[in-house]
Amino acid sequence: MIETNITKMFGLKHPIFSAPMGPFFTRELALAVSEAGGLGVLSNVNIVGTDPVKEHIESLEYLIEHTDRPFGLNILTSRNNRGVKEMVTEIPKIVMKNPKMREQCIYWLTSAGSSKILPSSKPFQELRENSEVKHFHVAPAVWLAQKCVDSKVDGIVCTGGEGGGHQSYERVSTLVLLQQLNKTFPDLPKIACGGFATGEGLSAALSLGAGAIAMGSRFISSKQSEFHEKYKALVPPGKPQDTNLYTGSFGPIRLFKNKYALEHPAPSSKEEMIAYEKSLTIEQMMKDADAYDRVYYGDTDTGAVLLGQSIGVINSIDDVNDIIERIIKEAETAINKNHAMLK
Ligand SMILES: Cc1cc2nc3c(=O)[nH]c(=O)nc-3n(C[C@H](O)[C@H](O)[C@H](O)COP(=O)(O)O)c2cc1C
User: Fold this and answer.
1) Which range of residues forms the domain containing residue 169?
2) Are residues 326 and 236 in the same domain?
3) Domain membership flag for residue 301
4) How far is the CA of 307 from the centre of ligand 1 (A)?
5) Which residue has a Cα nearest atom 6 of ligand 1?
6) How would you class 85 by CB atoms within 10 Å of its CB: exposed for 0-12, middle for 13-18, buried for 19 or more?
7) Main-chain phi, psi angles of 141, to 5 degrees
8) Which pTM value belongs to this model?
9) Is the CB of 195 under 6 A from ligand 1?
């Protein structure tokens, strides 16, 4: 057993979270991760034809019906995201009214926008005052972590540039970011994210001041994840070099280098990225949005395949329970090995 400030905060058996992976569904994955003793997270689903508020509410109902364990949800607070205002007002109201949801849906993770939007919502304030609900926000750089602290978050998710999917313009690696954040905010609860898939990774994250890890790519290649089999099949043979940071209408994003990715620029600076993003036409933006639908239905050639460098250390598609148990065992071995070095 590994006990940390995060396992204690959320009443978890293991310091392992699933990372949110919108716009795709992660309901079954979240259920499996929570049931295995970690904390599963519902993604902000907004592929074409879905209503993000309705998807979250249906998933919340599904999870409380199928597990008694704690879980969480993600809201993308970007100005461009559909239904943000409704999500930060309507979902807290529903959770507040339902004692089982209020008890279990205790991890509210916001990302890709302002950390202030959720705590400014009156229904969320009421929920926070009357429950154990915690608010975390993704911080990919020290100056962004400061904004989270100013918004009075309960903790941060420290996501470095090697992670899969949506990224910040900052491109700081998880290794350096964790060391910076540990020095700057030593007492702030932290979840390390981006590049984790093994017990050695978990052990390193704990040494660097995090109380848990969150994993995206590792859980994509699990039996329970809702991702298409063709998507999962890219993970085990994948190498870190098979992914790269590109840009498009959704900002910086780490993608698997397929036909879709290679049609997008991979600029070397924040300024170049912003200039390209500003030049996009409505047609290009719509084409980008369609790429998520395409990959959802299995087109891993012209669809957007979001994956992190961690695919280089994932060797098989496994049951979520086995993934978590193996990581904990490996982490315990790594921690014991490190202790043995002390003379
Ligand atoms: C398919 C996919 C979709 C993602 N969508 C989101 C999202 O909706 N919200 C978010 O905060 N992060 C999103 N991310 C980033 C992940 O939450 C996490 O930071 C990343 O997967 C960590 O890197 P790893 O893949 O090496 O574990 C996404 C990542 C992937 C792979």
Assistant:
1) 5-227+317-340
2) no
3) no
4) 8
5) 21
6) exposed
7) -160, 160
8) 0.96
9) yes
